[in-house]
Amino acid sequence: MESINGLIQRVQKTERGFKDIQKEAENVAGNNSVKECISISDRLFSSGVPQARMLATFIFGIVASRSKNALNFLKKNVSKDENWRVQEILAKSFDRYCSDIGYEKALPVIEEWLKDGNPNVRRAVTEGLRIWTGREYFKDNPEIAVRLLSRLKDDESGYVRKSVGKALRDISKKHKELIKSELETWNLSNKRIEQTYKLAGKP
Q1: 20, 11 in Cβ contact below 8 A?
Q2: Domain check: are 12 and 107 in the same one?
Q3: Is this model's pTM higher than 0.85 or not?
């Protein structure tokens, strides 16, 4: 099994971006069993080094389709990390899980995460699946993507609403009428909805 300290020393050199860390995660996942990956990730995630926790998050995402424990760790533990870069990787890792099992099959988990009380969990979905209609299943069913995202137009978190608005704006580039029809149903006297509307309706 790979030395944890060795892994941390390597990824700690990455000060910007995430590609090198993602590559390291793929290497770890390719050379260890799921059980070993979870053990390595548990130890990495306890590190005070953000890049180590990013690496752990990537690894959990890679094995999540084969381990409920890994998926639960992402939802229950990684979502509480205060580092914004770790939260960006959480979004990517959730998308990796959905891609691995298939987006249609992932719908129940997508809906579960969108209803979670932690805004980081909700945003992991709205942000992770961007561009939604570039993903399999949603590519052929854009109305479902719009319906799921629109449920959060009044989200209590501005952080989540911003992600929702931008995700809907992404979809509007290929499905202008679909987004226009959805936005016409929104109650703009609600300030939260109005904020999301302004983002979603930008040209």
Answers
A1: yes
A2: no
A3: yes
Instruction: Read off the DSSP letter of residue 157.
Output: -
Distances, alpha carbon 11 to alpha carbons 22, 155, 180, in Å: 10, 35, 44
Instruction: Show which of 41, 66, 97 is a domain's final residue.
Output: 97
* Residue 66 CB-density burial (10 A; 0-12 exposed, 13-18 middle, 19+ buried): middle
Alpha-helix runs per DSSP H in 32-172: 34-45, 50-63, 68-76, 84-101, 107-114, 119-128, 142-150, 158-172
% pLDDT > 90, the chain: 97
On whether both 92 and 106 belong to a single domain, the answer is no
- Give, as one character, the DSSP assignment of residue 103: T
Q: d(Cα 126, Cα 120) in Å, to the nearest integer?
A: 10
DSSP string, 173-199: TT-HHHHHHHHTTS-TTSHHHHHHHHH
Do 74 and 93 contact (CB within 8 A), yes or no?
yes
Whether the per-residue pLDDT at 203 is higher than 80: the answer is no
What is the residue range of 78's domain? 1-97
Do 139 and 133 contact (CB within 8 A), yes or no? yes
Find out whether 59 and 25 touch, Cβ atoms under 8 Å. yes
The residue with tokens 């579960």 is 112
CB 91 within 8 A of CB 123: yes
Domain harbouring 124, CATH code: 1.25.40.290
